[in-house]
């Protein structure tokens, strides 16, 4: 297919395509509840001179509104996708749970389910339930509530350090095709694509593409493709894997608990599209990609000593897909090869077979009217 055809096919339709990442300037909502005097200091990021928090802290910020009850200060909807960016909901819900455990406990795993798309124009209310407080482990169940229904659930487990357990194991890090300094950024890749075919597109589609470029520039996370190919993360390129370098824009506070929230926020970036790539589906394929939404998301954290402001290598594969869904597995590594987290997500991934179904119905109707069918 020509570049022009590919561009038209990949432009967002606004329906059923999961978002890549949010922008701090898109569809923000601000809580109107009065400040709570007992709000923990850790919930309020340090402000810059312009009154805004550092980019990666800005989308995670919460307001305490009751006992074990928190509310989002703002939500972001990317230019594609049915609702709020899933990584933001994950991060906020886990951050709410983190506020309810002693600081010596560290989150080591979580399991979550996306139940309904959330409206970025209505704050989410996170209710934390203290399931268990043991000597070594603690468990928290957090529900995200909006419009009188639960839209998301997450169970987080926290553990105390075990310094006398000195044995450890991890496989070697997959060798990236490109180092961060040799990678093109997500926004530059989209800009190059626009420069090649933008003038040939209708005005409305040109503006959609420009919005996508601006949005990627404003993301709180910098994304670079670690693979030596020209395919965008939305494009099916016949592979069942992806690889990115990710780095927060701006500083990250010196806080291990929040560093894990940063990893969690980044862990939802483009992960489900590993499934659509494996199936050969995108907006230009035949049949094209129809529905792509996340069902669940799990993360296991290891090796707590790292710099969250540095580059993270995110290597993704799809081990299986079928029956309208598929699994993406990811490993998050430091640049020097330390395995930080294992990520698993199952997503609905459906081809848009409406044209095929219409043709089948037309054939059946035609066959029913044929002379032989009346005999």
Automatic annotation (TrEMBL):
GO terms for molecular function: fatty acyl-CoA hydrolase activity. Residues 19-50 are annotated as: Disordered. The keyword Nuclease does not apply. It comes from the Eukaryota. Residues 79-158 form the Acyl-CoA thioesterase-like N-terminal HotDog domain. Belongs to the C/M/P thioester hydrolase family. This is Acyl-CoA thioesterase II domain-containing protein. It comes from Mixia osmundae (strain CBS 9802 / IAM 14324 / JCM 22182 / KY 12970). The gene is Mo03180.
């Amino acid at each position: 297919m020509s570049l022009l055809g590919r561009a038209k096919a990949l432009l967002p339709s606004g329906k059923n395509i999961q978002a890549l990442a949010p922008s701090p300037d898109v569809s923000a909502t601000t809580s109107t509840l009065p400040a709570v005097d007992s709000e923990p200091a850790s919930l309020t990021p340090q402000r810059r001179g312009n009154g805004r928090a550092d980019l990666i802290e800005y989308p995670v910020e919460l307001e305490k509104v009751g006992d074990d009850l928190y509310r989002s200060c703002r939500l972001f909807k990317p230019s594609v996708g049915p609702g709020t960016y899933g990584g933001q909901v994950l991060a906020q819900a886990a951050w709410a749970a983190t506020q309810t455990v002693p600081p010596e406990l560290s989150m080591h795993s979580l399991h979550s389910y996306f139940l309904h798309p959330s409206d970025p124009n209505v704050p989410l209310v996170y209710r934390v339930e203290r399931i268990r407080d043991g000597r070594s482990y603690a468990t928290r169940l957090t529900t995200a509530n909006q419009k009188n229904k639960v839209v998301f659930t997450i169970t987080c487990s926290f553990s105390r350090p075990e310094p006398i357990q000195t044995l450890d194991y991890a496989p070697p890090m997959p060798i990236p095709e490109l180092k961060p300094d040799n990678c093109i950024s997500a926004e530059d890749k989209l800009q190059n694509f626009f420069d090649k075919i933008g003038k040939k597109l209708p005005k409305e589609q040109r503006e959609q593409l420009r919005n996508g470029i601006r949005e990627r520039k404003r993301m709180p996370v910098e994304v670079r493709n670690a693979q030596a190919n020209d395919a965008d993360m939305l494009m099916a390129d016949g592979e069942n894997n992806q690889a990115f370098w990710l780095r927060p824009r701006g500083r990250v506070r010196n806080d291990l608990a929040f560093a894990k929230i940063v990893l969690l926020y980044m862990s939802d970036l483009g992960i489900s599209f590993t499934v659509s790539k494996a199936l050969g589906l995108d907006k230009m394929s035949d049949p094209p990609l129809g529905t792509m939404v996340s069902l669940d998301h799990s993360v296991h954290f290891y090796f707590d000593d790292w710099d969250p402001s540095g580059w993270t290598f995110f290597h993704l594969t799809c081990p299986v897909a079928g029956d309208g869904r598929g699994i993406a597995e990811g490993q998050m590594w430091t640049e020097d090869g330390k395995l930080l987290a294992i990520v698993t997500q199952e997503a609905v991934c459906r081809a848009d077979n409406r044209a095929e179904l219409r043709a089948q119905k037309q054939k059946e109707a035609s066959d029913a009217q044929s002379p032989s069918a009346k005999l």
